Amino acid sequence: MHPLLRLAWLAPMLPLLPEAALAAPDPVRIGGSSTVFPVLQAAIAAYQKGGANRQVRFELKETGTSAGFRQFCSGQLPLANASRPINAKELKACAAKGVTFLELPIGFDAITVVVNPANTWASSITIRELARLWNQRATGSVKTWSQVNLDWPNRPIRLCGPGKDSGTYDYFNKAINGDERNSRSDYFASEDDNELVACVANNPNALGYFGFAYYQSNAKRLKPLSVVGKKGAAMPSLASVQKETYLPLSRPLFVYVNDKALRQRPELQKFVTYTVKNGLKLVKQAGYIPMPTRTYLLVESKLYRHVTGTAFGGKLPVGLTTGQALQRSLESIKKPEFR
Question: CATH classification of 26-108+252-338, choosing from 3.90.1200.10, 3.50.50.60, 3.40.190.10, 3.40.50.1000?
Answer without folding.
Answer: 3.40.190.10
